[in-house]
Design goal:
The chain contains nine helices and no strands. It is mainly α.
Length: 206
């Protein structure tokens, strides 16, 4: 019998829930309340994870709705678009003439945290679905990328909204909740491409 492994895929672009094999928006106190506790349980480096989500809400004992078995859904594919766009900005855009030395240092530090390239260190990336953490991670963006940053934050907010809408219906699984999300993400991604016009990509070294 063939079994699809939910951990298959490129780690840097995988949806946060898929990385943890957990629904993250089930708690009655939404916006990822309780994520800190979840990540502590799953991370080998508990102190580091605690720092990454230090602003997380403290209501980790809030009651959960009855939760169905974790399954992949279409929002997970949409979330991959967000991480892919961020990856291009962090590692593939030629920002040498746009960023200061401090901005470059921040980009390199945040890039390693957001895209560690392994499952064990993915907690920092997961926490970025919180608006405060996302804003802090992208605070290094130089002025020409500010519109792009706003569009990416809109993508993040849309994902959170639809994850919450889906998971608040548990134990029912109403996948039609996600129907508008794909078009929203496509429009925002197209806007990101438009906002990036004039910014060169780095030439790969042979």
């Amino acid at each position: 019998m063939f079994v699809l492994m939910l951990v298959q895929g490129t780690v840097d672009f995988m949806a946060s829930e898929v990385l943890l094999h957990e629904y993250l928006f089930v708690l009655d106190t939404v916006n990822l309340s309780g994520l800190e506790q979840l990540l502590k349980e799953k991370s080998k480096n508990k102190d580091k994870v605690a720092r990454l989500v230090k602003n997380e809400a403290t209501t980790v004992d809030a009651p959960k709705r009855e939760c169905p078995p974790f399954r992949h859904n279409s929002a997970h594919d949409s979330e991959s678009l967000l991480w892919l766009a961020l990856f291009v900005i962090f590692f593939n855009m030629d920002l040498q003439s746009l960023e200061t030395k401090d901005q470059k240092t921040s980009r390199e530090i945040e890039g390693k945290r957001v895209f560690p390239g392994n499952m064990q260190s993915s907690g920092g990336r997961v926490a970025l679905l919180r608006v405060n953490n996302f804003s802090a991670c992208t605070s290094w963006f130089p002025a020409p990328l500010h519109e792009l940053r706003n569009l990416l934050n809109m993508m993040r907010a849309a994902l959170v909204k639809y994850y919450e809408a889906f998971e608040k219906e548990f134990p029912a699984e109403k996948y039609d909740v996600f129907d508008p999300l794909h078009e929203i993400m496509v429009v925002l991604l197209e806007s990101c491409i438009t906002a990036s016009v004039g910014i060169q990509l780095r030439v790969a070294q042979s």
